[in-house]
């Protein structure tokens, strides 16, 4: 595995570097964004910061570079991210450290505060989420806490941007050359440091944190977390946890399918009708036929298809997924699946990286950094592609709509489509666990490790921020990447479809060559070629299929699903073809971006190739088996 390093980029030589530390899920990234004006992705689940963000802020006295360190519960652990946090805090780079704490769980958070104070006295304790504490009637005496710790303490509410100026003032204080921290707590920590037994040392730190929190915290309502406990009984119980998880997955897919059908068709009609305008412009400008064909029939139509198929579902799916994330539900998914992953020889944290894969498998691969064990991290990376990313959802939804439920916009059809899609996703999850088990018994053998997973409090999602973040940070970003990839691939397909060798185009030569292998997989050469050309991004697989099938060597105005189904059936598609396309969509090689990310994360060509071939071989085996069974029973 590659080691994480920190390279500080200062705007001026006078910039002071401030480490931003804290437990996972204390609002650290949100506070970092408020301070620096950056829009780092924040979310209500542990381990969100898997890369080190840097931002800039200026107080009345100084200019600062803030470094957002990975969330950690301890500096005594051994994961790469926690080692980076510890090493950076004690390095000469950091002028001071801001430790962000959760006001609703001060005792647990003070463990990290005390550990950092054992390394450096230049600490500012930021008690965040004060608004939540007030709602739960938890009172913290900030002045008393500051006196007990002997370092500056400030109360903040990052979501309401309260306490930010005070925080900067406190940072100004601890970065002064003549700053001296209070000695009472530091002397107690010095004694703990001299304790030779690590286990005893940890017990003393926990005891000191508990005593300090008890002295400064009062509760007007002892049952402040009663609602959370009731919800957890529902969401995490053995009886209802898994069924509710599946039901929520189904609901998200149903809302996505039901809401995206009409906008997709409308968008397709608008974009494809604009082709006439482009052709008129090209004719008026006297473009040569080859240039007009390449740019309009090749590039534009592929891009138009990608936009019309991807944008509406993503604009619905990402906000819904982000709402669940903000609500605090996703860590409960990891909790529910922990036992299953343990039995598969993997780590329960793999459920979190798997959830990230629904948005983007490359993000899921990067998210595997939250897994401490290198062996289990590799398992998570290799199997992450078994859950479909946003680029594969449109393929699955299109095939399900065309061949399983019909393209009429009836609510019953969308319910059945969502049910089939949910079943497909669950198949991917089960394959993830099966392959994790096989890998843990073969090339990545070992015992599964235990881990501590914080179940954060349930929080009311911030609808406005959810919409902005999911549309700008996710939907537009992913769509932009797809357009960048689809444009050159559209040009390539047009060239292949229009350059002739002998009596056949290059495209026909390629598909003819692939036909024998594709046939035994229940596919055809065009489908297999489309998946190969879709290596840069899965979003372009269906446009590649269309280009391969059309005798006109370009994508015509297939602006409705009915027309698309006719085209596919005319080219030999059957129900078996549709099933195998869905299986191969679910199980085939990762996209180019994901493969590059795997290479970066593992630092190994070997594991990158393993990550390529494992899902691909599973896809080939599944389609071969399905085709053989289909023919055996004469279906």
UniProtKB/TrEMBL annotation:
Spans traversing the lipid bilayer: 239-257, 302-324, 378-404, 410-434, 491-510, 516-533, 540-558, 578-598, 610-633
Location of the FeoB-type G domain: 15-177
Keywords (A to Z) from UniProt: Membrane, Transmembrane, Transmembrane helix
Keyword Signal: no
GO MF, one annotated term: GTP binding
GO cellular component: plasma membrane
Coiled coil: none
Protein name per Swiss-Prot or TrEMBL: Ferrous iron transporter B
Native species: Erysipelothrix inopinata
């Amino acid at each position: 595995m590659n080691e994480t390093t920190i390279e500080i980029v200062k705007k001026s030589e006078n910039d002071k570097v401030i480490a931003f530390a804290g437990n996972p899920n204390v609002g650290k990234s949100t506070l970092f964004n408020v301070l620096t004006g950056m829009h780092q992705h924040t979310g209500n689940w542990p381990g969100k910061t898997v890369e080190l963000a840097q931002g800039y802020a200026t107080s009345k006295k100084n200019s600062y570079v803030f470094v957002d360190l990975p969330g950690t519960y301890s500096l005594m652990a051994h994961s790469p991210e926690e080692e980076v946090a510890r090493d950076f805090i004690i390095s000469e780079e950091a002028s001071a450290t801001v430790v962000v704490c959760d006001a609703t769980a001060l005792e647990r958070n003070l463990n990290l505060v005390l550990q950092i104070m054992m390394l450096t006295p230049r600490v500012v304790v930021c008690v965040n989420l004060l608004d939540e504490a007030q709602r739960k009637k938890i009172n913290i005496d900030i002045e008393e806490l500051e006196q007990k710790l002997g370092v500056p303490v400030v109360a903040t509410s990052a979501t309401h941007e309260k306490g930010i100026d005070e925080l900067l003032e406190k940072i100004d204080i601890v970065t002064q050359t003549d700053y001296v921290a209070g000695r009472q707590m530091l002397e107690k920590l010095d004694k703990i440091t001299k304790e030779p037994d690590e286990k005893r040392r940890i017990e003393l730190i926990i005891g000191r944190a508990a005593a300090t929190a008890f002295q400064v915290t009062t509760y007007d309502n002892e049952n402040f977390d009663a609602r959370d406990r009731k919800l957890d009984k529902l969401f995490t119980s053995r009886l209802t946890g898994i069924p509710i998880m599946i039901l929520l997955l189904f609901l998200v897919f149903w809302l996505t399918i039901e809401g995206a059908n009409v906008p997709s068709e409308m968008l397709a009609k608008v974009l494809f009708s604009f082709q006439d305008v482009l052709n008129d412009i090209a004719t008026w400008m006297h473009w040569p036929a080859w240039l007009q064909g390449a740019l309009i029939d090749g590039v534009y139509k592929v891009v138009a298809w990608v936009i019309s198929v991807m944008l509406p579902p993503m604009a619905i799916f990402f906000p819904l997924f982000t709402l669940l994330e903000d609500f605090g539900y996703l860590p409960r998914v990891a909790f529910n699946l922990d036992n299953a992953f343990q039995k598969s020889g993997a780590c329960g944290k793999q459920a979190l990286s798997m959830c990230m894969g629904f948005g983007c498998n490359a993000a899921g691969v990067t998210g595997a950094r939250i897994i401490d064990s290198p062996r289990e991290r590799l398992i998570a990376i290799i199997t992450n592609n078994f859950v479909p990313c946003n680029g594969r959802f449109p393929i699955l939804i299109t095939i399900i709509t065309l061949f399983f439920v019909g393209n009429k916009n009836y609510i019953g059809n969308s319910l059945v489509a969502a049910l089939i899609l949910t079943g497909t996703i669950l198949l991917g999850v089960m394959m993830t666990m099966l392959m994790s088990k096989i890998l843990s018994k073969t090339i990545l053998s070992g015992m599964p490790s235990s881990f501590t997973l914080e179940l954060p409090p349930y929080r009311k999602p911030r609808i406005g921020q959810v919409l902005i973040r999911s549309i700008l940070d996710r939907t537009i970003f992913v769509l932009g990447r797809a357009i960048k990839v689809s444009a050159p691939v559209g040009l390539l397909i047009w060239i292949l479809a229009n350059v002739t060798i002998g009596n056949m185009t290059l495209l026909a030569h390629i598909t003819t060559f692939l036909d024998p292998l594709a046939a035994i997989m229940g596919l055809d050469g065009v489908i297999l070629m489309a998946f190969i050309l879709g290596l840069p991004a899965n979003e372009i697989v269906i446009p590649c299929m269309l280009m391969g099938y059309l005798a006109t060597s370009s994508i015509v105005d297939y602006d409705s699903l009915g027309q698309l189904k006719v085209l596919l059936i005319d080219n030999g598609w059957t129900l078996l073809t549709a099933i195998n396309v869905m299986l191969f969509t679910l199980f085939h090689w990762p996209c180019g971006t994901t493969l590059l990310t795997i290479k970066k994360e593992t630092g190994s060509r070997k594991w990158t190739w393993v990550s390529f071939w494992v899902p691909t071989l599973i896809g080939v085996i599944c389609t071969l088996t399905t085709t053989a069974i289909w023919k055996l029973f004469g279906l």
